Amino acid sequence: MSLFKLIDNWLDVRIGTHSLIEKELTGYLLPRNINVWYSMGSVLLFIFSLQIVTGILLLIYYVPDADKAFASITTIMNRVPFGWLIRMCHVVGSNMMVLILLFHMLSVLFMGSYKSPRELNWLSGFILFNLVMAISLTGYLLPWSQLSYWATTVATNSVGTIPFIGSYLVEFLRGGKLVGPPTLGRFFALHVAVIPISILAFVGLHLFLLQRIGVSKPPFGLKETKNGWHGEAFHYEAHPGGIPFVPNYLLQDITSVMLYLAFFFAVLFFDPYLFLPKDAFIPADPFQTPAHIKPEWYFLANYQTLKLFPSEFLGLAVQGAAMTFLALLPFVDRGAEKHPLKRPLFMICSIRGDSDLDRARYMGAFFMIRISSIHVLVLSGLILFQPSHSSAVTPTDNACVQCHGAQTGRLAKPVELWRKSIHAENRIACNDCHGGDPKDAVNAMNPDRGFLGKPNPNDIPGFCGRCHVGVMKDYLASLHGKTLGRGGPTCVTCHGNHLVMKATIELINEKDCTRCHDFEKSLRIKEAMRETETKIVYLDGKLADFKGKGVDTSQMEKTLFAARNRFHTLFHELDVLKIKEQTAEISKDLDIQLQHINKLAETDRKRKIAGVAAIAATLFAALLLRLYAKTLD
Q1: How far is residue 275 from each of residues 19, 89, 140, 156, measured CA to CA in Å?
Q2: CA distances from 282 to 23, 143, 278 (A)
Q3: Which member of 115, 268, 282, 618 lies 3.0 to 4.6 Å from 146 by CB, making a disulfide possible if both were Cys?
Q4: Residue 133: which of 88, 95, 171, 104 has the closest Cα?
Q5: Per-residue model confidence (pLDDT) at position 375
Q6: Which residue(s) pair with 30 in the sheet?
Q7: What are phi and psi of 233, to 5 degrees?
Q8: pLDDT band for position 633 (cuts 50, 70, 90)
Q9: pLDDT, tens digit, for every residue of 531-579?
């Protein structure tokens, strides 16, 4: 007899393993008309298990400290072997868990599986739904990024609208008046200990209730679709002649998990940053509020709903009442009918009508389906794909912009031009150049407040050189600068004054250059600089792209910044030979950066190949399982 047989017999004699397996697995029968939606629970168990495993692996390197959290995430993403994969599995998995949970709840609602005697099943599932939302919210802050910091600030601010205790609740959640290190500590403890243990406890309760009461029979393909339960005594819903859980429906569960993994891998390897906008890769800055902060997609419905009411408290109260109604739905909906097509307010196009009483019962449930699922998905889509807005905004407290913007003609022209300039894009306002007090319309042009006014032509280089010190020195050393005071070109001749143009070789053009001299030499200079600028623009775009994917590009950005500055010093140089020599040297340095970029692109390509292989493997496994399950029918 083999060792396995000996151990098996030894355990069976002492705890009856054979009879236990027979009763709970092969002897556990399910309805013959059971469908794929019943496997959503098993998929959720798999997702939660994967979240626990990836979360534990992340804890090895994550540092829950406000000064080190973002750096530790950067280390995980860029230096830890397979750190990128583990972190993105956790991020994508958390979003998928919410999505699958919504589908699971919708299937229960549409099939009437929440009805008596399964009120406790529904309540435990509803609590699990809220715990999943809570663990997602607390985990959102942990990277300590610009996005997570300000999204948490907005989320915790909402609690402050509750009368009497709102301010105390906000301070309790944050551990202080503002989101800070104590908030990170509290959310970390909730995310890795308190909430996961609570989820495990309620998952155990949910599974116990499912096993104790029995699986609800789907209302499809049956003549009688009403709930036949009577409340005189406890009754286990058995399914004589049904299919065994093992191996028949277990194969369906595993098939569903394989199909989920195929979808999961598609997102993970081809669009893992779907749930992470660029602000998620910028360290938190309490002193700089991003122009546009949006919560995660599963909180968008709540966020948008608040805007429909005159006060946040009223919006929260309505949402709280709606969620309470959803929790108590099994106690409100006492109707026996389970088939969705026979409950018209659950379906927009009903097959036949029911009584007015039934309509009244289902109205609340139908309303909750909309705000808990369809509302979430539609609003998420609208907001995720809404047009982006420029970060260049007009300062609302700028008296210069307010005054000139209200004028017409010549006085309004500076504001019109400024709005299109590189200065506006970088939020450099009128007073940054002209001085004065932009917050006081009466004294905005008072010399005592530092107002400089319009500079004389000879003073323009010094005027601009207050910020562009190095550029001014290059200009003054150039042939252009040496003609200053003798009618030679100044900064505004090429760059413009209010419509200030970014320094590119397009400033070297026939229209502007021929105002002073022949364009032939300028054209040779432009051609000598063109290849180098093309490389700089390409590298700048690629680095921004990879930075938006969590890649640590800080060292490459510093190198590119230095190369760009060296290149920009040549803009005032008129010696063609010198320009060619120096651009050749700069181009060599840029070629090294291009090699780094190509390595990153190659890594990205290899990840996609691995993704294709993973998707193909899971789909093939799902097909084999499905074919094997067919042989058991």
Answers
A1: 47, 12, 11, 21
A2: 55, 10, 7
A3: 282
A4: 95
A5: 42
A6: 243
A7: -155, 160
A8: confident
A9: 899 999 999 999 989 988 888 888 999 999 999 888 888 888 878 888 8
Q: Can you spell out the DSSP letters for 432-461?
A: HHH-S-TT-TTTTT-GGGT---SPPGGGHH
Give the Cα separation of 456 and 491 in Å (integer). 12
Which pLDDT belongs to residue 131?
A: 97
Long-range contacts of the stretch 477-484 (C-beta < 8 A, 24+): 477/572, 478/572, 478/573, 478/574, 479/574, 480/572, 480/574, 481/572, 484/458
Cα 582 from chain centre? 43
Across the chain, mean pLDDT equals 85
For tokens 């939302």, what's the residue? 133
C-alpha distances in Å from residue 365, one per residue of 102, 338, 372, 568: 15, 13, 10, 65
Give the number of other CB atoms < 10 A from CB of residue 489.
21
Write the DSSP assignment of 40-91 as a string of letters.
HHHHHHHHHHHHHHHHHHHHTT----TTTHHHHHHHHHHTSTTHHHHHHHHH
Residue with tokens 């306002």: 429
Quick one: tokens of 206?
């949910």
Three-state DSSP class for 386? Answer: coil
SS3 at position 145: strand
As given in the structure block, the two tokens for residue 29 are: 């029968």
265 in Cβ contact with 614 (< 8 Å): yes
- Which one has a higher pLDDT value, 2 or 559? 559
- Reported as a single tens digit per residue, the pLDDT across 305-315 is 777 888 888 88
User: How would you classify the pairing of strands 243-244 and 29-30?
Assistant: antiparallel
Centre a 10 Å sphere on the Cβ of residue 120 and count the other Cβ atoms it contains: 15
Long-range contacts from 63-70, C-beta under 8 angstroms, 24+ separation: 64/142, 64/184, 64/185, 64/188, 65/181, 65/184, 66/144, 66/180, 66/181, 66/184, 66/284, 69/142, 69/143, 69/144, 69/184, 70/143, 70/144, 70/145, 70/283, 70/284
Q: Is 164 left (phi over 0), alpha (psi -120 to 50) or beta?
A: left
User: What does the pLDDT look like over 177-220, one tens digit per residue?
Assistant: 999 999 999 999 999 999 999 999 999 999 999 999 999 999 98
Count CB atoms within 10 A of the CB of residue 588: 10
Q: CA-CA distance, 399 to 416, in Å (whole number)? A: 15
Per-residue pLDDT at 1: 62
Q: For the stretch 268-303, what's the b/e string if a residue is b when 16 or more beta carbons lie within 10 angstroms of its beta carbon?
A: bbeebbebbbbbbbbebeeeeebeebbbbbbbbbbb
Q: What's the per-residue H, E or C state across 575-608?
A: CHHHHHHHHHHHHHHHHHHHHHHHHHHHHHHHHH
Nearest to 333 by CA among 519, 122, 153: 122
**Is 339:219 a contact under the CB 8 Å cutoff?**
yes
User: In 3-state terms, what secondary structure has residue 387?
Assistant: coil
Q: How far apart are CA 530 and CA 148, in angstroms?
A: 41
CA-to-CA distance for 138 and 132, rounded, in angstroms?
10
Q: Which residue has the tokens 């805007």?
A: 307
Q: Distance between CA 307 and CA 300 in Å, rounded?
A: 11
Mean pLDDT computed over 15-27: 84
Contact 351, 341 (CB under 8 A): yes
The span from the CA of 567 to the CA of 573, in Å, is 10
> Within 10 A of 254 (CB to CB), how many other CB atoms are there?
18
Number of H helices, E strands in the chain: 28, 2
